[in-house]
Amino acid sequence: MKFEVMSSILPNSNNADAQAAGAGIASPAPTFSPLYQQIKALIMQRLEAGEWKPGELIPSEVELGGRFKVSQGTVRKAIDELAAENLVVRRQGKGTFVATHHETQAQFRFLRLMADSDEPQRPENKIIEVKRVRASAEVARQLDMKSGDSVIFIRRVKSFNGVPIILEDIWLPGAIFKGLTAERLVEYRGPLYGLFESEFGTRMIRAEERIRAVGADPDAAGFLGVTPQTPLLSVERASYTYGDKPVEMRRGLYLTTNHHYQSELS
Amino acid sequence: MKFEVMSSILPNSNNADAQAAGAGIASPAPTFSPLYQQIKALIMQRLEAGEWKPGELIPSEVELGGRFKVSQGTVRKAIDELAAENLVVRRQGKGTFVATHHETQAQFRFLRLMADSDEPQRPENKIIEVKRVRASAEVARQLDMKSGDSVIFIRRVKSFNGVPIILEDIWLPGAIFKGLTAERLVEYRGPLYGLFESEFGTRMIRAEERIRAVGADPDAAGFLGVTPQTPLLSVERASYTYGDKPVEMRRGLYLTTNHHYQSELS
DNA sequence: AAGTGGTCTAGACCACTTT
DNA sequence: AAGTGGTCTAGACCACTTC
After folding, report:
1. Contact state of B210 with A260 under an 8 Å Cβ cutoff
2. pLDDT at position B23 over 90
3. A136 DSSP 8-state letter
4. What is the pLDDT of residues B85-125, one digit of tens each?
5. Hey, is the C-beta of B209 within 8 angstroms of any chain A C-beta?
6. DSSP-assigned letter for residue A149
7. A·B CB contacts under 8 A
8. Could you tell me the distance in Å between the CA of residue A85 and the C1' of nucleotide D14?
9. A218 CA → C18 C1’, Å
10. A78-110 pLDDT tens trace
């Protein structure tokens, strides 16, 4: 808990109390940041620390304003940004809740593959393999670990309406996902990130994908029921939790004969 | 210019004046929208009408507040959203400007292909072909026209550091881009959307892309210097201007041997 | 009735830019 | 010095939810 602004830098009488709230900790950082950003950072720290867990209600804006000695409007602006980043969800009349991956609306936020037709798609996951391996140089780099560190490897196939469409390899840091077993994965219903969140206390916040066109290798061709060299979408994903800490690496091969990857540019 | 809220629906004394500003037009819409959304819509209408052109300064928040008979804070919230949608750019101390495609920062907003390495990429465009054609059924559907309507077709190749990477076909509504010639395209420096904006008064706001993996046809293989059936990224883009009116359709074939399409999930 | 987020106003001071 | 957007406060009323 700290405020980065000193009264001398930001001689705003309104801020005096807020600065006092962080009293005792002299900040070495010379960079300015507005009060609401500092409040946002404070709330984010508490989210990260698990003070309020996914799905739970956080204190009201008035309550937080009192706690941090700032006006409700300032807390509001802080929470506005947290809501824009999907860390938190507002519900009028009820309050503000910590975002969770256990919601129908969140199911498709991280799967951008859409059917060309508008027929309903019954998704189905099949776990092919789960094993503990040593991190390769590339996996170690992506997950911010050392080469040879323990990593959990998952291979699965996602089908739509019974037709295999995605072959996906997933690498997870062994230290974080210690007790993860094939049995648990097979029996679990719902999105993987929901499992990570509720059983391993690791909430995925943000991801980046790198997309390429590749030819199917014999292995992939077998799983997807196509001939080798069939063009496939290669989707490499790096997932991050609080503080941009990497927590997952994926590589998916998407069959895009009757599906497409949807991207919004704005 | 209209307000969708009647005093009886929104009995906020603060709004009374704002409602009066739209006086004379009875609104049939029964849906509620907050004042700042109405202000936002009003400003958007003026942007669309070209009252303030791209790159120009729009009136200050105080000025607009006076004009619409609402407080500066309400105008601010309206402009906040317009800025978030990239319709407008704020500059502290200067004012708020209509966004434009003639800015270095905007150059890469609509090209998500990145080099795998971090070597500098010298881009280069080569116009292959420009011709007037009749809209096929699919083009007509995408551009919201009738089959057979006049369409301008452009084919070009984009190279990085002298190596051809993208073959792109572009379809434009003939009615909007009437005077567009191959000569003008060849001599024009800078992003295509900049040309559209300053010479045809059509500003692209938003786009959607559908991505697939395909095998190179002989034609494409020739332009990109690869063998037929080489996997390529097929990127179909639909571009929209104000009011979600389609103004462009594209189909790019990206060679992703040393490049990748970058996508942020959040 | 009480509490919550959602909207709106009014006024103040700040940092930045231009005159 | 004057004008602009950026931040912060304080207070009001609203719509929605729960008790």
Report:
1. yes
2. no
3. P
4. 999 999 999 999 999 999 887 778 999 999 999 999 999 99
5. yes
6. -
7. 104
8. 26
9. 67
10. 999 999 999 999 999 999 999 999 988 777 899
